[in-house]
Amino acid sequence: MKRLKRKPSPAPFLGAAAVWLLWCLFLPMNTVWNFLALVGASAASYGILRLIFPGKLVKADKPVKKPKAPAEAESSGTAGEKPEESEVDILLKQGVDAVNELYRLRGVIPEPSVRERIDQLADLTGKIFADIVDDPEDIPAVKRFAGYYLPTTMKLLNAYDRMSGQGDGQNVSGTLKRIEEILDTTVKAYQKQYDSLFANEALDIETDISVMETMMKREGLTGKDFEVRTQGK
């Protein structure tokens, strides 16, 4: 089975490098404060560009494991027995199957607006499932997403595909229109689901920033106090 892997974009690194280059060409570097400001500006540039250019999701083969010796095989279970898949592997397989099905539906549904929504849903679905590789703590949230929202979305899109060629009757037209409307809401829900997966990480980062700010203030390493100290040395 192949799992999803994020291939980083070079844009954040190039952006940070550009900040350093432009700063060194046009702005002063004669104090430690100037240097820290440069570090902060380049870090902010990197963070913003990483959000804008998160990279691409690609399929990567799982590393081939060295076969166990007969004694090891006996100690871990019945010889020749197929090892159980981990919870992450099972969810990743669901994710790959879901993205493939979304793209299959995109290929058979002619309505441009629906095809555009499917593109968005497929991209968000891949990102949601890829998150559990880096943060297994999000497995419960992704399982809830995979257990209801994803199959219901597939059900609606398959119904849209079947009814698209059934003429212009009132029931058919009304149902197709209703599905088109709910897809807009579904895309927003998928976006919120993806964003919510980073809540714990954002809280940890905010805590680290607060602690660092407190430490720097305590040591007089911020603002004018820091500048006076460095100049007096």
The protein's oligomeric status is single chain
CATH topology of the largest domain: Single alpha-helices involved in coiled-coils or other helix-helix interfaces
> Which structural class fits the helix and strand makeup?
mainly alpha
Query: Beta fraction of the residues?
Result: 5-15%
Give the strand tally.
2
Features:
233 residues, mainly alpha, Single alpha-helices involved in coiled-coils or other helix-helix interfaces, 9 helices
Describe the structure.
This protein is mainly alpha-helical and 233 residues long. It folds into two domains: 1-62, no CATH class; 87-197, Single alpha-helices involved in coiled-coils or other helix-helix interfaces, CATH 1.20.5. Helices cover 73% and strands 5% of the residues. The chain contains nine helices and two strands. Helix 6 (139-163) packs antiparallel against helix 7 (170-196). The protein is elongated, with a radius of gyration of 25 Å. The model is unreliable at 69-83 (pLDDT under 50).
Topology summary:
Layout: E1 2-7, H1 11-26, H2 32-52, E2 56-61, H3 70-76, H4 87-108, H5 112-134, H6 139-163, H7 170-196, H8 199-218, H9 223-232
Antiparallel strand pairs: 1-2
Task: Describe, in short, the structure shown.
This protein has helices spanning 11-26, 32-52, 70-76, 87-108, 112-134, 139-163, 170-196, 199-218, 223-232; strands at 2-7, 56-61. The chain has 233 residues and is mostly helical.
